[in-house]
Write a structure and sequence with these properties.
Strand content: 25-35%
Shape: globular
Strand order of the largest sheet: 1-2-3-4-5
Largest sheet: 5 strands, mixed
Structural class: alpha/beta
Length: 125
C-alpha cells in the first residue's frame, strides 16, 4: 500500500535573538512564523522600547497580529524593519503598514536609520 499522507517534520514557532549594537540599538532577529500562536514572543521582544531593528528576513509568515505588534512598537519606540521575504512584504503592503513603518531591505540600512549620526548628536551629546 502507498501512504496517502506523509508528515513533514518542520520546526514550528518563532525564535528571537537579540543583539545589542553601539549607540543603544537593539537588533531583533526573528526566525520562524509570526501568527496568533507566536505573536506573544514578538510582543515581548518589542516591549523593551528604545531604538530597535526588527530583522524579519528569516520570517516565513507574518499574520495581521504580527503587523499590529510592529505598529504598536513603532508608536512607543524608534523601529526599523528589515522585510526580506515575499510573505512579510505582502503582509505589510496588504495592511498598509509599509506606509507607516520604516521598511528596509538590508539590516545595515535599518541600523543606519535608527543610529544617530555623530554630526547630528553634536559635540555636547
Amino acid at each position: 500500500m502507498y501512504p496517502l499522507f506523509r508528515t513533514i517534520d518542520e520546526p514550528c514557532g518563532l525564535t528571537v535573538t537579540t543583539t545589542e549594537r553601539p549607540g543603544g540599538v537593539r537588533v531583533l532577529t526573528l526566525v520562524g512564523d509570526v501568527d496568533a500562536a507566536t505573536v506573544g514572543t514578538l510582543d515581548e521582544a518589542l516591549a523593551s522600547g528604545g531604538r530597535l531593528v526588527a530583522d524579519l528576513s528569516r520570517v516565513g509568515f507574518l499574520s495581521c497580529a504580527g503587523v499590529r505588534s510592529l505598529l504598536e512598537a513603532d508608536d512607543r519606540a524608534e523601529l526599523a524593519v528589515v522585510a526580506g521575504g515575499h510573505a512579510v512584504t505582502r503582509s505589510l503592503e496588504a495592511t498598509g503598514a509599509d506606509l507607516l513603518l520604516k521598511i528596509h531591505v538590508r539590516p545595515g540600512d535599518a541600523l543606519t536609520a535608527v543610529t544617530p549620526l555623530a554630526a547630528e548628536a553634536g559635540p555636547d551629546a
